[in-house]
Amino acid sequence: MTDLRLYQSVADRLQRKILDGVYQPGDRLPGERELADEMGVSRVTVREAEIALQAMGYILVKPGSGAYVTEPASRHDADIPTVSALELTQARLLFESEAAALAARNISDTTLDRLASLVTVMSQSHADGDDASLMADREFHLTIAGASGNVAVQYTIESLWRMRVELANVHDAHDAVCSEAMARERGREHQAIYDALKNRDSSAARTAMQQHFTRLLTSMIDSSEAKAVEALRVQAAASRQRYLTVFPKSESV
Amino acid sequence: MTDLRLYQSVADRLQRKILDGVYQPGDRLPGERELADEMGVSRVTVREAEIALQAMGYILVKPGSGAYVTEPASRHDADIPTVSALELTQARLLFESEAAALAARNISDTTLDRLASLVTVMSQSHADGDDASLMADREFHLTIAGASGNVAVQYTIESLWRMRVELANVHDAHDAVCSEAMARERGREHQAIYDALKNRDSSAARTAMQQHFTRLLTSMIDSSEAKAVEALRVQAAASRQRYLTVFPKSESV
DNA sequence: GTGTTAGCATTGGTCCTACCAATTTAGTGG
DNA sequence: CCACTAAATTGGTAGGACCAATGCTAACAC
After folding, report:
1. DSSP code of A80?
2. Separation between Cα atoms, residue A125 and residue A123, nearest integer Å
3. pLDDT grade, residue B4 (50/70/90)?
4. Rounded-to-integer distance, Cα B1 and Cα A173, Å
5. CB-based contact, B127 to chain A, within 8 Å
6. Potential cystine with A202: which of A104, A192, B15, B22 (Cβ 3.0-4.6 Å)?
7. Which of B55, B81, B91 faces A52 most closely, judged by CB atoms?
8. Residue of A83, A87, A152 lying closest to B163 (CB–CB)
9. Which residues contact A59 (CB under 8 A, 6 or more apart)?
10. pTM for the predicted model, two decimal places
11. What's the confidence (pLDDT) of residue A1?
12. Contact criterion met (CB below 8 Å) for A193 and A84
């Protein structure tokens, strides 16, 4: 399924729940046996995941008691700013496009092979919202950033991805624009980016990456507009309920 | 002695060996089975210790191969990466140009006034290498980044500036290309950037910023080449001193 | 002689079961 | 109602087993 370690996948899932606020600071996580059962892995794997999370400062494991979520301040990587999904995507549109353009001039054949396998993995992922797909997507973009041959570029895009993964609002926004059709479209875009890199076409790589993020940005804006419309509709319904129910005859939702 | 978890004790011992240089970056640690035997613990415990070390960035575990000590730069306590001045300048060339292009569409009049005064300050600075000039330069670029209206963009350029200021090698490289003539040229470039922003000309702002960094990058490359030539000259002189002084008549220089 | 390939040994990844130790909870006796 | 004890829960460690990926090596083909 994924070439990621299994315990890493479990750690990521737990981390996500912590970042999303499902488990709040001070909360006690379910027991190791319970988590193992829930996630369909062995207790050893859950233990390994919890040890990794503890090393990263997300939780504190107390023998005989349980694992507790720590305060965000004590996390090892807590200095990322609060940005909206639209801002972040715009920044990635600008920066990752340039990174791709640079990568097209420096990328090696082995790196191209790696990207090809990632494109395949992503195209085969059934459930789009799953961890494997997200991780493959992340690795795809970070591999391109690395192929630029510029550590500063790589570092920059890594920190943008940290915002993408760790900020709950950004994560939600991505989930909201996820659909079967979108997944196919995204697959085509990844393919286009790969093709441009394979041809060492710097300009085409920039354009392909720009289109990738432009489409994403457009989807997000449409989605938020649709959500706003829906919110208005709900509010209107409530108002109708409140202000029109005094006329029994007029009720018609 | 050990109110710690056993795996943490093992992790500490391994970490100390890494920090003491017993295991150097790139080295492969003994296998899990071997370490377990050496330290008198189970393989599970060794695995847990290695997972904790990996989460802290000390080692990288490769399935089927072994656990390898990572470069000190990639440890989690090292917040900013180790980059060369050329890499950083290239990254800034790419990213700050896009930030300027974005800023041209969003910048306010008051922000423009602020930039104008900064341009004046920098043009009047006598000693170019002084702190005031550096700070004004920094504020000039960060103000533009802020004018983009995108927090992610602003954050990114701020972190690039941290590398610019905090990394000694980068700092030195900038000092090396500093001269009276360069300062005047730099002033003209800042003026050009400001003019483009004032005209809300996105494309011109991008180009002006690109030219600014391209010139800087060129200067750095020339400078490092000149330095390399100088180093060769010094080395040649030393060789001359060492190998030719046996002939007293030939000494010249 | 060279390059390729097939096979084998090593190594990490995961799981299971069992038992120990610390903690928490339930219960009990005062 | 409180203090103390016993049982249940929970994390900690161990050993063994099997799988998959990696790396080495020797045999093979050219």
Report:
1. -
2. 6
3. low
4. 50
5. no
6. A104
7. B55
8. A152
9. A14, A18, A29, A50, A53, A67, A68, A69, A70
10. 0.74
11. 41
12. no
